[in-house]
């Protein structure tokens, strides 16, 4: 199978592109009865460095019929895919519902979870790592990933992706039904799901406003169901990154939730203000390193510059008070990647907080911040142009969680479009975003869909404890895999993938491969963001 298509399909009126990794001049679109309904010429891209494939690109955007089709060329074919007005409804539903499946501290009921039920997990009290006499009830939130840890900066990143997405495309997301326990309430399901994480985050705030970096057991559990993971839960020390990111999401949530629940909004406002106070009292960097004996995810950072920038911008967005704008300007003078939308570098969330807020804004600053996104989108687009698979990656970017970069770029193109940045490239921003999604869903050198349960060749064995321990062959749907990683940091990956393998092909759908095939909340969240953008865009077509 060397004809690579988006296995979730294409928009009827949108761009439709595939990649063929063998020499060919022509390709056909065929219907299920094998009739040729369209024929096109391929474009020879040449050698794609990341995959070492000789790549031919097939563009059938002109073909605008709905139905089920496949591509053929030189006697080869791909699996059936769909062209429709709504090709990604299921994908959006699944990738957003993945968060429900990751809920901690409650039972997953059959009504919502189908066969993937389990009883309430991690319900015990947590004690401070260095002072066991301090204990706290911190149930709730989402499991971070394949492990059962819950980490503030990771959660804040996922929430920022989701809540900023809601700010931009709320009109489309408002009515998204997710079949979760809160469905049917006035609050949109999308926001109810995010609130589950936000409420947990609030519990990690200390009296003085500092926020614990994470709550986990001392070491990762073995591959057991979450309710069987009964190890002592620990609260790990406060970090300035966690505290600042906490301010960022609470302030963001304040505005979004006010319409539905003023009491909750007030609580978020108070929490953000208090933690911002802590940041002012602790101007120094309070980093985080796992203490001796703790082996769960670290999420350490080298500085907290971008985090403090985001916190100040978010406070300004929430209050409109000059003092925060001043802090934001000062923090913004430091050197850090300004357009980043990550779990470490969060500068882009700061820019968004300011650009999307309804407070008084300085035109010069708006222009400056928009230009940062425009430049970032432009260089991401240039990278995509020089890749045969049209993904915004060079051969060095296939590191742990490479799919996060791909989906962050999808989100970035969406942001640039939303902000109506000056765009001179021939290809539209939405088309670049579509290409990133295409990569995730099968237009990659392995022809694999990196989302469980979606696509004819999708991952099914992610490094995800419940998915393995439940004994069900089928994986929980909607989970986004970390993807190709040249680093091959786990033993099984080294065994399964030869060292000379080109970066884009360094992948294996194997449960042991945590450096290739784990899932995380912040790999799902930018996927949701990219999808929401594309759906919103398509409805405007
Ligand atoms: O996503 C993280 C990745 O970028 C790092 O390279 C990797 C190694 O430090 O850690 C990843 O984060 C893991 C976290 O520490 C614990 N939960 C699972 C995360 C995904 O693998
Ligand atoms: Zn749990």
Structure, briefly:
The chain is of the alpha+beta class. 40% of the residues lie in helices and 12% in strands. The longest helix is centred in the last third of the chain and has 23 residues, at 363-385.
Explain this structure to me?
- With 541 residues, this protein is of the alpha+beta class.
- The protein has a domain of 266 residues: Glycosyltransferase.
- It is 40% helix and 12% strand.
- The chain has 16 helices and 15 strands.
- The strands form three sheets. Strands 2, 4, 5, 8, 9 and 10 form a six-stranded mixed sheet that branches.
- A hairpin with a 2-residue loop joins strand 8 and strand 9.
- Helix 3 packs parallel to helix 5, helix 7 packs parallel to helix 9 and helix 10 crosses helix 11.
- The longest helix has 23 residues.
- It is globular.
- It starts with a strand and ends with a helix.
- The protein binds ligand 9MR and zinc ion.
- Zinc ion binds next to loops.
Q: How would you classify the quaternary structure?
A: single chain
Span from first to last CA?
Answer: 33 Å
How much beta, percentage-wise?
5-15%
Q: Could you report the average pLDDT, rounded to the nearest whole number?
A: 98
- Can you count the helices? 16
**Unique ligands:** ligand 9MR, zinc ion
Helix content: 25-40%
Largest sheet: 6 strands, mixed
Structural class: alpha+beta
Net shape: globular
Low-confidence stretches: none
What's the gyration radius in Å? 23 Å
CATH architecture of the domain at 89-289 and 297-361: Alpha/alpha barrel
User: What is the CATH topology of the domain at 89-289 and 297-361?
Assistant: Glycosyltransferase
